[in-house]
Design a protein that fits this description.
This protein has 134 residues and is mainly β. Helix content is 14%, strand content 41%. It is built from 2 helices and 8 strands; from the N terminus they run E-E-E-E-H-E-E-E-E-H. The chain is globular and about 40 Å long.
Length: 134
């Protein structure tokens, strides 16, 4: 099974976190809810990749956010895709939610209570990924 390293970033404002709905144009898990995520590119550390994805997907610069926690990576097996995703979780706080501007990878976003993650049709193991950041 192919192992692919990815980052998943949760952005927190006050007591809410940002969920984004993946567009039909992304490579996997179209129309599923997720955090800001992306493949770990060669030469990047997981944190560098997280910051790059935040810039690209939601227009946030490093000065807009504050890193709260980097979680222990978790392996998520997807038999259907024949992949094991190794997810590197991150939790950032954001002071000004009006800074969020999504790109083509997402069709909408919502600020939700973390307790409500399970109410959404998400990418695999999103709740477990969040729980690594508590």
């Amino acid at each position: 099974m192919v192992e692919t390293h990815v980052v998943t970033c949760f952005i927190e404002h006050e007591t809410m976190i940002l969920l984004l709905k993946r567009s039909g144009r992304v490579g996997s898990y179209q129309q599923k809810w997720a955090g800001v995520s992306g493949h770990l590119e060669s030469g990047n550390t997981p944190l560098e990749q997280a910051l790059q994805e935040l810039r690209e997907e939601v227009n946030l610069q490093s000065y807009d956010i504050s890193l709260q926690k980097e979680g222990v990576p978790l392996a998520v097996v997807d038999e259907k895709l024949g992949k094991t995703w190794v997810v590197h979780p991150f939790r950032f706080t954001l002071l000004d939610p009006s800074k969020i501007k999504t790109d083509w990878e997402h069709t909408e976003y919502r600020w939700i209570s973390p307790d409500d993650i399970q109410m959404y049709e998400t990418v695999p193991n999103l709740l477990e990924t969040w729980n690594r950041l508590k």
